[in-house]
Amino acid sequence: MVKTSFKVFFLLVVASLLVIPAAAQDNAVILRYPINPDPEHLNPFTSTTIAIGTVERNLYEGLISLDAPSGAMKPQLAESWDISDDGLNYVFHLRQGVLFHDTGTVEFIDGDREFKSDDWVCAAEHSVTEDDTVSAHPEWLESVVGYEEFKAGDADTISGLTAPDDYTLDITLSEPNRLFLITLGVPGIPCEVTQNIDDYVNSPVGTGPFQFVEWQRDSFIQLAANPDYYEEGKPGVDGIRFINVPDDNTALLQYREGELDFLTGFPTGQRGAVIDEFSSEYQEIPGFNVRYFGFKMDQGFFAENPLVRQAFAHAFNRDLVWNDLMEGARFPADEGYMPPPMDTDPETPLYDYDPAKAADLLTQAGFPGGEGIPEITLLIFSSARDELSLPVLQQDLKDLGVTMNIEVEDSTTYWDHLGEDDVLFFLSGWSSGLTDPSDVLNYLFLDGRDDTAYDNVDVDALLRQAMTEFDPDARAVIYQQALDLIAADSPWIVSAYSKVGWLQKPYIENFNPGGGGTYTARMADVTVDPSMMQ
Amino acid sequence: MSVYILRRLLQVIPTLLGILTVLFILAYMMPSDPLRAVLGEQYRRLPPEVVEGIREEMGLNKSFIERYGDYMGQILRGDLGRSYILEENVSDIIAYRFPRTLELMAGGLIVGLLIGIPAGVIAAQKQYQWADHVLMVISLIGVSVPIFWLALLAQLFLTQSKYGIALFPVAGYEDGSVIHMILPSLVLGTNLSATLARVTRSAMLEVKGQDYIVTARAKGLAERVILVRHQLRNALIPIITVIGLDIGYLLGGSVVTETIFNWPGLGRAVVPAIERRDTPVILGILIFGAFLFIIINLLTDLIYALINPLIRYN
Question: In this complex, is the C-beta atom of B172 within 8 Å of any C-beta atom belonging to chain A?
Fold first, then answer.
């Protein structure tokens, strides 16, 4: 009896070993891409996280797209567009014959359902609502004429948005906005789905190069190539499986054993070893994230002592942290406040590592040898991957005669605590999704919006001026003036700029992300070289 | 017996209400603004009046008493609420993930039983001999080793051809795939098997010298029959108790195991929910876990009566 049971168990194990993974069935080429966390949902109107964006950018399309590496605008659902000379009127000519995904999950899409201008208007109107939990993207259309009235419920339509025919959209802005096209994220979704979006957040329908197949929560999301995709020869693979891998160590082991085609995160402390092991598969580009130690600028010790802020900035040995201790995980911030790919002028005045100058500045500030400076506390969040920058900063400040304590909080508590008066010094960072400097400067330095509460009316005026300046060269000059003023005020110790680094298997081709992160790569372009596959 | 079961089931209601109240107070006292976690980066981008509007929509501007009343009313209607973040009902979250956690717990339990009980029996039979010493040292290590470390070692040596032999997939879940289940089950069941081995050994030794064992042997029964029918059966009560208690441990241990092995169970839902202050999910899953634990304890008590005819619940 026991022997029989054992045989049955053994046969079961052997049978299960022979189960062929879905990814390899029928010789289909399915990319296996790690993702963490599992996307919260796939509702394009309320999506705010990278995990959601990673999947959604393959399912949904807007009128135009941004090329990830260059930031250049490219036609997508709109084949072309005309902009009036005064910058107020946009006419989009839509691509004809674009079909929505026929995934079998939406009963009213049976066969060919074409994307038309009314679908886009429907989605646009859905995104403008009084109910802020329905749409998290007011920036998409806020500069369109009639936006406020429609949002307040005083109008049935957005007066500045019309669809003269099935393949034309006419949009009028209330004032020129050079970021209008870049931030116009309204997706092409069937109006029937938009009106019942809650029923379709887990079975999405769009026009993108891939269509939804299956979602096993906390496990994987499977997409298949859209057979009706309008771009010839795209996508270059049969599907993508976004595999949710919450642990970087596990992801590395999976990549090594060929269970993943990409590795986008490195286990802490193993970065150097991993890059050594997979040197021919490692890729790297500069990123759009900046890490900094912020000073509270509206009250407290640092607000009253600008020379102390500058002294701290000169005292911090970024090179030691990021090049040596952190094995090149980021670029030491030796250029300025903006990540290098976005910097309009890399010659910004800097706070390079100079302990002697730092000591001089402290003396000038009336604190020779750090005497008289109270013990300071740096607030950080527990998941920060900047661990090794902290003891270095602590030691650098100690060398100046300053005692720094470190207070660690979980990230949610930390973000809430930042606004309190007792927090005078903290670790923070900012990731931009665009190559445009406004995506950093407007959110951090305009009207005191950063947690430093830094507010300089001259900087505000320059940043506003830049928003209406359409000439890129003139705009670069304005931004440089603003950055010079900010650097002189030194509200931050800039620590590092991000690197977007990843591993990809040798048979993967045309995977080209931008500085925003690996998730920005257009997966429709990715191809596989079969000769390199084992 | 049925009166006893009914009484125990009725006791579940005030127990759960008490647990729910304590959990609600703890969740309410968690530091930080849940909206900050819910909105993420958007919290910094949205104007303050919009953030306040969302707070009102979600009822987060209400007092503790109002929120407690609302939540209790909701629970009494059988509604566990909706996740702040996942755009899913909590009951759906549990319904999807619990069967997967149950699979893992069952796998861990099977491993624990298959290894722990035979090891304990052998150790008792070979008391003070080398087999006993070896098994007890191994079980001591098994009890002491942390799950995450064991999981990493198992992954390194059993999934990586570079360091060992690639017998199993590194991680992941596939419907109906036994191969994906083996390694996490082994890891999850190791502590249980070690505990069971030690408990089984001591329970077996306790009954070994009892009169009924001597009598059985005097009657000329085969040693195997004495071992299984008389010795092991009488030693089962403490073993069942440990199993009952350790199922709760398996539920807790599955959080780590699920994370390392990409297993889409309850643990994988509750950890991010805590990080992001998704109170309905935290409360829903914890209260479900508490309910499960109470039911398992009840079943354990009932199994005592099945094993030992002297135990009656009247």
Answer: yes
B185 to chain A, closest Cα gap in Å: 13
Q: What's the average model confidence in pLDDT over A341-359?
A: 76
Return the SS3 of A379: strand
Q: What is the CA radius of gyration of chain A?
A: 26
CB-CB under 8 Å, B172 with A13: no
- Distance from the Cα of B198 to chain A's closest Cα (Å) equals 24
Question: Within chain B, how many helices (H) and strands (E) appear?
Answer: 14, 0
Share of chain B above pLDDT 90, in %: 42
Whole-number pLDDT of residue A345: 60
Q: Within chain B, which residues score under 70 in pLDDT?
A: 40-42, 44-45, 312-314
ipTM given for this complex? 0.80
CB proximity list for A202: less than 8 A, separation 6 or greater: A41, A42, A215, B87, B88
Print burial letters for B80-95: b (CB count within 10 Å at least 16), e (below 16).
bbbbbbbbbbbeebbe
Flag whether residue B45 sits within 8 Å of chain A, measured between CB atoms.
yes
Which single residue is written with the structure tokens 């911090």?
A316
DSSP-derived letter for residue A374 is P
Question: Could you give the percent of chain B with pLDDT greater than 70?
Answer: 97
Q: Are the beta carbons of A499 and A285 closer than 8 angstroms?
A: yes
Instruction: Measure Cα distances from A325 to A275, A285, A289, A490 in Å.
Output: 15, 20, 20, 26
Neighboring chain A residues of B285 at a CB cutoff of 8 Å:
none
| Sign of the CA dihedral running A318, A322, A328, A329 | negative
User: How many Cβ pairs within 8 Å bridge chains A and B?
Assistant: 137
* Secondary structure element (H or E) that encloses residue A428, with its range: strand A425-431
- Give me the pLDDT at residue A385, please: 62
- Sequence-ordered alpha helix ranges (H) in B30-178: 34-39, 42-45, 48-57, 64-76, 90-125, 130-144, 147-159
How far apart (Å, rounded) are the C-alpha atoms in residues A208 and A229?
A: 7
Interchain pair A256, B162: CB under 8 A:
yes
- Structure token pair of residue B260: 């390392």
pLDDT per residue as tens digits for the range B147-176: 889 999 999 999 998 898 999 999 999 888
Taking a C-beta distance cutoff of 8 angstroms, is the pair B67, B28 a contact?
Answer: yes
Amino acid A356: pLDDT: 95
Structure pTM?
0.84
* Cα dihedral sign, A420-A425-A429-A434: positive
Asked if B277 has any chain A CB less than 8 Å from its own CB, the reply is: yes
pLDDT value at A13 more than 90? no
Strands (E), A8-63: 30-35
- Cβ burial, residue B14 (10 Å; 0-12/13-18/19+): exposed
By three-state DSSP, how is residue A346 classified? coil
Chain B CB contacts of A250 below 8 Å: 155, 170-171, 260-262
B82 and A CB contact within 8 Å: no
Q: Residue B34: list chain A partners with CB under 8 A.
A: 412
The span from the CA of A344 to the CA of A352, in Å, is: 19
Q: Which of B87, B94, B153 to mutate to test the interface with A (most CBs of A within 10 A)?
A: B87
**116-155 of B, contacting A, C-beta below 8 A:** 152, 155
Rg (CA), chain B: 24
